[in-house]
Amino acid sequence: MGEAVRAVIDDIIDAFRCGDHARLADRYDDDLDWLLHAPVAMLPSAGVRRGKNAVLAGLLGLYRDFRIFSYKVPLIMVEGDRAAMISDLELMERASGRVIASHVASFQRFRGGKMIEYRGFSGQFGAADGSFDDELDVWSAGSPPTSPWLPKVQRG
């Protein structure tokens, strides 16, 4: 099973890099359970998403606002129907040309050649030049910050 899951992951990675929604749709289960912890203002695909269509809509926002400048996956571990990845993502904001970088740790579960569950955790989100224009709250869509200890990404 691990080899089959690895082939699905490789296809998803390539489809994400290319912005190939048709291939992503083929690899995502209709009831995909998605949670990406990241600033929604920086990654439109962040937050809680239920179902393939909701995930693809978030990715459309990402491709609309950003161009994938670089996406590297230095670590993929597969055991049975589960996988874990470490990835480095650089996006170029279409409006400004600014390059934004993040490291993402993610965990996935698969069934029948499709991703059924995704949990991602973005860390060290910032501009490649180390600067931002203002402060950005970090929270997932649908769950605004309710605690004063929630982290903030400093801009500027």
Structure characterization notes:
A 6-stranded mixed β-sheet has the order 2-1-6-5-4-3. It has one domain (about 1-155): Nuclear Transport Factor 2, Chain: A (Roll). About 25% of the residues lie in helices and about 45% in strands. It is globular, with a radius of gyration of 15 Å. Strand 3 and strand 4 form a beta hairpin. It is α+β, with helices and mostly antiparallel strands. The chain is built from 3 helices and 8 strands. It has helices spanning about 1-20, 20-25, 50-65, and strands at about 30-35, 45-50, 65-80, 80-95, 100-110, 115-125, 135, 150-155. Helix 1 (about 1-20) runs antiparallel to helix 2 (about 20-25).
Question: CATH topology, anyone?
Answer: Nuclear Transport Factor 2, Chain: A
What is the radius of gyration? 15 Å
Name the helicity range: 10-25%
What is the total domain count? 1
Enumerate how many helices there are, as a single number.
3
- List low-pLDDT spans: 131-156
| End-to-end CA span | 47 Å
Q: Based on helices, strands and strand pairing, what is the structural class?
A: alpha+beta
Question: Helix-strand pattern, N to C?
Answer: HHEEHEEEEEE
Query: Can you summarize the main beta sheet?
Result: 6 strands, mixed
Q: What is the typical, i.e. mean, pLDDT?
A: 82
Which percent range describes the beta-strand content?
over 45%
Task: Write out the strand line-up for the largest beta sheet, numbering strands in chain order.
Answer: 2-1-6-5-4-3
